[in-house]
Design goal:
Strand order of the largest sheet: 3-2-1-4-5
Order of helices and strands: EEEHEHEHEEEHEH
Shape: globular
CATH class of the largest domain: Alpha Beta
CATH topology of the largest domain: Nucleotidyltransferase, domain 5
CATH architecture of the largest domain: 2-Layer Sandwich
Largest sheet: 5 strands, mixed
CATH superfamily of the largest domain: ATPase, nucleotide binding domain
């Protein structure tokens, strides 16, 4: 029996989740603020027990949008684990994880304030049995006016606005669930494909430390 391990570090909190199947999910969060980089590895080691690294079958990580430093920390950690353990690494949008957590069927718009008055936004659809989340509009940085236009075009049934300072660590359960769905359908993304989504940062979509 193999386990999946998920990390969420895109907000000022750490979220970890592990499971062997959809009915056996263990998760924990810590409000670490700027200390996440100092405590991530010891907390991860403690959280993993009683499982071991050899029990893992895949890794997942929230790859943004969110804080630059925290997002990068989580992605680099996931890539390193994937490389060292020869495991696939799933990257899950922070906005998709939020949409999954709401468990509201139909179309769901998720938006979060970005810098310079812009907006991180995406639109998803959750099917009737809450088992599949489809991306209608992938996470993108919009001006406030352009985001309003997108909302008018897609006319989502639900629209959730997430404060920029929100603690997103609890949505690590969404990261875990979406990664497990992808894993169960046979996806095996190579660790080198795991990249952060910064949106507004100059190094957007550029390779990070190998």
């Amino acid at each position: 029996m193999k386990y999946g391990l998920s990390l969420h570090t895109s907000s000022p909190a750490l979220g970890l989740a592990i499971s062997s199947n959809v009915d056996d999910v263990r998760c924990q969060t810590w409000d670490l603020g700027r200390e996440t980089s100092n405590y991530l590895h010891p907390y991860l080691l403690d959280f993993l027990s009683p499982q071991t690294w050899q029990d893992l079958g895949w890794i997942a990580v929230a790859n943004g949008p969110g804080g630059f430093t925290g997002t990068r920390l989580g992605v680099v950690t996931a890539r390193t684990l994937g490389q060292q353990l020869n495991l696939p690494v799933f990257t899950i949008s922070s906005l998709a994880a939020i949409a999954w957590q709401w468990q509201q069927t139909g179309s769901i718009a998720i938006s979060m304030p970005a810098q310079r008055g812009e907006v991180f936004g995406a639109v998803y659809n959750l099917n009737d049995n809450c088992q599949e989340l489809t991306t209608i509009l992938p996470e993108t940085v919009f001006s406030a006016a352009d985001w309003d236009t997108q909302l008018a075009v897609f006319n989502p049934e639900h629209h959730h606005v997430i404060p920029q300072s929100a603690n997103l660590a609890d949505t690590v359960v969404g990261v875990q669930a979406l990664a497990r769905i992808a894993n169960d359908r046979g996806d095996r993304p190579h660790w080198s494909m795991a990249l952060p989504f910064y949106g507004q940062h100059p190094v957007i979509n550029s390779p990070i430390v190998k």
